[in-house]
Amino acid sequence: FFDLGGHSLLGTRLIARARSVLGVELRLSDLFDAPTVARLAARVDAAGQARPAPARRERPETVPLSFAQRRLWFLHRMEGPSATYNIPLALRLTGDLDERALETALADVVERHESLRTVFPAVAGVPCQRVLDADAARPRLRVTKTAERELPDRLAEAARQGFELSGEPPLRAELFRLTEEEHVLLLVVHHIAGDGWSTGPLSQDLATAYAARSEGAKPQWSPLPVQYADYALWQRELLGDGGDPDSLLGGQLAHWRERLAGLPDQIELPFDRPRPEAMSYRGAQLPVCVDAELHEGLRALARDGGASLFMVLQAGLAALLGKLGAGTDVPIGTPVAGRTDEALDDLVGFFVNTLVLRTDLSGDPTFTELLTRVRSEALAAYAHQDVPFEHLVEALNPARTLAHHPLFQTMLTLQNAPSGTFDLPRLRVTSDLVPTGTAKCDLTFVLAEQPGGGGLSGVVEYSTDLFDAATVTAIVERWLRLLRAVAADPGRSIGQVDVLSDDELRALLPARQDAEPPQHSLPALFERQVRADPDALAVTDGATTLTYGVLNARANRLAHALIERGVGPEQLVALALPRSADLVVAVLAVLKAGAAYVPVDPEYPAARISYLLQDTRPSLLLTTSQVGMEGADRLLLDTADLDGLPDTDPGVAVDPAHAAYVIHTSGSTGNPKGVVIPHRNVVRLFDTTRERFAFGADDVWTLFHSYAFDFSVWELWGPLLHGGRLVVVDHETSRSPGRFLDLLARERVTVLNQTPSAFHQLVQADAEDPDTGRRLALRTVVFGGEALEHARLASWYERHPEDAPRLVNMYGITETTVHVTHTELGRTATAPGDIGTALPDLRAYVLDAGLRPVAPGVPGELYVAGPGLARGYLNRPGLTAGRFVADPYGPAGSRMYRSGDVVRRAADGTLRYVGRADQQVKVRGFRIELGEIEAALATHPDIAQVAVLARQDRADDTRLAAYLVPAAGAAPQPAALRAYLRERLPEHMVPSAFVTLDALPLTVNGKLDHRALPAPGPAPATTSRAPRTAREQILCELFAEVLGAPGAGVDDGFFDLGGHSLLATRLAARIRATLGVEMPLRTLFEAPTPAALAAALGAA
Question: Is pTM, for the whole model, over 0.90?
Fold first, then answer.
């Protein structure tokens, strides 16, 4: 069958013929599995009895809409008349046209097809079909004179004119007269009355009627076996009740519920703009062409796989969408003709149904394996194609939204319906489709095979809300590139297929910077500043002020003491000191002795401190008697006598490759890991940012952050390497925005480094004390440590110039030495998540799981290469090898760091932060492995299972929430759990909310279902609150009445209670009758509870 040119649609017609001739019910999968006459005959012998065929029915007083019509009627009511579902057909007529015969022929066609003279009024909110008599519905052929150059605009304008379905017949005709011998006939049919197949019978019947009328006769055609209203009644009888599992509808719905369980609400693609809250349905089209050679290769793939050409195209499209960010669970919509019986073949009407084809891309299959999956899925879908799409939406009840199409957002159509031929006497006829400037989905690919094996051609219709033409052009090119690759080698895994051109790949791989590595260590550069100006102020700590000379002398004395204790290069010295001038002295001393410092925050719990000392095994612990820390060999700075030691530079040969510090970051195994950073990494950080910031001796910096957070490295060396001054911010001041603002103004600070969370508090203090704010001397504010929300800077910009201070956002990672990217901020909002471009000496790659660059706009994991990379993790060679991997795009032997952060590269080359690839999150600037918190909680005897999430229930507020399943007989209390964790973890790793569950929700794959975890908060009340107004009370009663529910609370959602589109129209009618107000249907989507709806109607 398929070797002779058969395809899915012809297969459906063959099965319809077998039903009427042989009286048996075959499935499309029978034809695919047994595609020869001999083999199919064996299936016929085993087939069941054919289902009842459609026939003329006795008409009830009100004829219901078909299910497909009901969906379009609802969308029409919600959006109002629009061109979204107009089907325009333009016919160029060259020759001697008889206009009167044409107008009469149109009337003949409208008389023959009831669907073209049906209107759709609503009775008590319920729509019905009302068939007008032929005279009342007789179409008027409007004739318009126009010039050739004006024609495209005139056609588009006419095609975009909407229908008022409640009273206007759904066919409109207009004749554009160019010359006496040249006309263009535009027919516009609303989709509620026709579909793509309908153009065939419409054109054939119009040609027959015109030929007769132009000869002064009536058309002689055989009567139609059924009309569309008969079909609508037959469809309801055939399908039965969806609640009855033995009915056709019930059985098929059960299949779809199982197949589409857990379907993603929407898929992410490389959009040019964020998705608006409501689709505008504005769209545009671009051409798609598949050449004859590729077309033949795809047909060969289909033959080899026992599949159809459509299945090959669908598998290729799903594979592409997966590569463009859609993930591995990709739903694609496709129309099916819906004319499953011969009686419907010659009818003009809306029979087409939409199927959801779910493609599983998991496990990186070969294309051959993927095609097998797609074939199986498609045949199962065709076998259950009778469920109207509207029923499917109601049964699955996805989250109702005006923002996107339900269940899928991308469609694929391979048009192979029989097309009618307009053979009109004395006329040459050519046809063309007229774009309406609309789009029903994000992307719709429409292709048709050209006669004689001349390839495929068609269009892609796209939403201009989301896409620019250039982006869609690139998507089409990548689809064709993927199809060529799989046609040439179907045994290659999808992950190995490149969809980017060589030029695109080159543009996405940053050029290597072969700069000379730094030749000096941090102490050497500091000592250079001391020699340049020893009397310049270096550190301010409350009332204590140290010049460069004094700071150097104190650091030298301590360094000599360390050397006497045996401290030297590549050794570790732990620092457990409060933020103070003594801390700065200690850091300098450790580095001057050649060692690396390990920050151990005295505020950490004893268990954490014990682990850090055990992990690093430092040669020495520098602390004070007030800290009272036991453990390693200690040197107490407050009691040590250093006065007799030399204050000269120790002269230890510190190599720039020697370790400078080891800072611990959270670890997924439950223990933090130490990151080893050499001197040269920090030195090159300031070298590579010199042009951007021009830091100098006039700058005043703050040491605001914990020295266990690597932002402090930037704060410490920014002033000390440039001759500037460092102001130490004590712990109390750092926690009081008002006091901190006063300190910034008093000390004339010019360079401020802040996490966005801390700066937002400072902005509030600045707003409350504008006089102090006006005294600020800030030149530069650098953000880092967590995601920045630009909108929250609006208040700051209201009171401060855009460039005084300059605000800069810098994304960074401890393992790549503080900062990776840089972007200047301004008053104008930046794109969400914008983190700018990589620092000049670093290379930022956005790669897929196979380490291939992803296309612009597509999420991928960020890998960083260049001289900022840490040496690795202390004493963790396995972990180091897993995160610091070979750089396939760099010099031989070079490495890149796998960040675990998911980013997109925008068209302009800037990076946009998306989220984490693993469980690691950032909360208030601290990088946290959720697994570490889960591991700590799992040791509590009262807890059987635990999951920890970083919830962002507000855009500007990320909080940790722990979800617990108690051990048998246990009832863990949040206060006790917090206390337990505080003994083991720093404060920033203690969840702010604890939620007890009977069981952790799992996906169908057995993984934790993060989306099903409830938002923390007060336990929901068993009953909804009482209505506050008479309108709320009435709406609660109307909700219950329409939904057939015993009651509805003021905060109950209409769709959550089982509401759907038809019930929504009934509710609108009841509200109109009871309250005397008009409720636009879209209002119910925006305000779906009685309380919200009462407020919305009151404001209307």
Answer: no
